[in-house]
Amino acid sequence: MGPYNWAMSRPAVVLLSGGMDSATAAAVARRDGFTVHALTARYGQRHAAELEAARRVAAALGVASHVVVDVDLRAIGGSALTADVAVPVHRSLDEIGTSVPVTYVPARNTVLLALALGYAETLGAFDLVIGANALDYSGYPDCRPAYLEAFERLANLATKAAVEGRGTFRVHAPLLALTKAQIIALGRELGVDYALTSTCYQPDAAGRACGACDACLLRLKGFRELGLTDPAAYR
Amino acid sequence: MGPYNWAMSRPAVVLLSGGMDSATAAAVARRDGFTVHALTARYGQRHAAELEAARRVAAALGVASHVVVDVDLRAIGGSALTADVAVPVHRSLDEIGTSVPVTYVPARNTVLLALALGYAETLGAFDLVIGANALDYSGYPDCRPAYLEAFERLANLATKAAVEGRGTFRVHAPLLALTKAQIIALGRELGVDYALTSTCYQPDAAGRACGACDACLLRLKGFRELGLTDPAAYR
Hints:
2 copies of one chain form a homodimer. The first copy, chain A, has a single domain, classed as 3-Layer(aba) Sandwich (Rossmann fold), CATH 3.40.50.620. Helix content of chain A is 37%, strand content 11%. Chain A has helices at 3-8, 20-31, 49-61, 108-123, 145-158, 160-163, 180-189, 214-225, and strands spanning 11-15, 35-42, 65-70, 127-129, 170-172. A 5-stranded parallel β-sheet of chain A has the order 3-2-1-4-5, sandwiched between helices. The A-B interface holds A 39, 67-73, 75-78, 100, 104-111, 114-115, 117-119, 121-122, 141-142, 144, 146-147, 150-151, 153-155, 157-160, 162-164 and B 39, 67-73, 75-78, 100, 104-111, 114-115, 117-119, 121-122, 141-142, 144, 146-147, 150-151, 153-155, 157-160, 162-164.
């Protein structure tokens, strides 16, 4: 088999949250010839709807494997998503500040990428895929290109596989420079069904989105810019 | 208050496993004037004795806080410490190879340091302390100086605190260049009671060490080199 076919069977670990960004990133990885192994972290977040969405998205993608790792970030506190702090509700996008929001989870992407790295090492994979986005990124520091490059560097020093010279880790962030509208357009091209995804910071018991949190506002704006209706359920 | 007193009250997050290295690293941090906040990860390891040891060590040190974070690394597999793989038993130290052992947990230190980073951010701390050791390190790639420097660099790109310019993260590995014998001598000077610590990869139900795994052999060698008897219980 030539290099093209070899590339076709190359495994990648994709961080799958159940949101629209990670679903799109997974679809890009599949398009680029990777065999997708999904990893979802159950990090004590209040919205279990995201986990259900991750399972639906993984099934729709036809992933090679999907592991759910429990990591209880509530013990270290500090976030409206894991602690008992109110999620801010904005009336419009203009109210979303440029400062880091209280929905920021301390060191979240570092924990998630570390788990992805461990799973990659177990699988013999060298490619990590994350749906990080530096434009509509809501002020999270661990979504910036310099951060992702630093993690890639770390991965190549951290692991048995790297020490033994069996490969070089790469962190892929295919959505990094895209707007939410561009992400949605790309995902639709690749067949992503956004009705399966969950983005809201505070969905109700039936998994329906609030339409008012930062995540909902950014998502709705993306669909609006494309002249589309978001297929997700809102309450 | 002058800078000395300010330094006295500076908080540090210390990774505390319950083993002798992390207990010693915590004692060094206390000696150096840090207020010690301990973090123990319950990562699905088979030896709960380590957790009990971590609680005893934290109490003996008089830490300011001690959080236990559940992170189930069994889901990502790949290690004799978390999966159903036999722990190797050696008859002598000569049999411990220079290759990475099967007790290696994929990306363990990256996950642990990520959790410490998150807790530090919640506390407003900028100092992370790990008992990593590059000499008697049993072949773990994520105990090397270059790895720890890469994590420090990552931490300063990953966090809200760093982005907002409130401080610079430092990763302290005070035992990095010490032999096990030197670690024990240092800890005894600082009042560490090694009877409280648990090092064995496969302790029995009463928490007694096997005396035959890599970790036990390295520990026993350290005490022997000092002409001392290990106060821990062996079966």
